[in-house]
Amino acid sequence: xxxxxxxxxxxxxxxxxxxxxxxxxxxxxxxxxxxxxxxxxxxxxxxxxxxxxxxxxxxxxxxxxxxxxxxxxxxxxxxxxxxxxxxxxxxxxxxxxxxxxxxxxxxxxxxxxxxxxxxxxxxxxxxxxxxxxxxxxxxxxxxxxxxxxxxxxxxxxxxxxxxxxxxx
Length: 168
Prior knowledge:
By secondary structure, the chain is an alpha/beta fold. The protein has one domain (about 1-165): Nucleotidyltransferase, domain 5. It contains four helices and seven strands, in the order ββββαβααβαβ.
């Protein structure tokens, strides 16, 4: 496999973020996966088990959004330092969970979400500051799925192609 760039003409950074919920059968911790792409090729990605047990799908994906937001901010700063970006731009991160997107947009604490640790509300501040925006992405187009769970062969190949990987 080789990483290809230029599959799409866009010079904007686009992120995809996902998490499974309780996928580890031994300790029920979730896995965070995210990928950031430019021109159809991945420039940064991660697949990592979450440090705490999420009590819901929304919480697992919200924790994944927090990690992706940190990387989005770092990529923005790096691109500005390298002169690739003249001014700070909002980075779009795709997420396949409407509840999580709603939670990131609404900083009001609800009884159903009080169990989500305060540190993860970091994302809300970054949205308020205009640094990131989360948009809905249907699961069938969620590139980060390849980093969070086992997939059928056809879906795996489709997603790695979307990731910017090609057979050499």
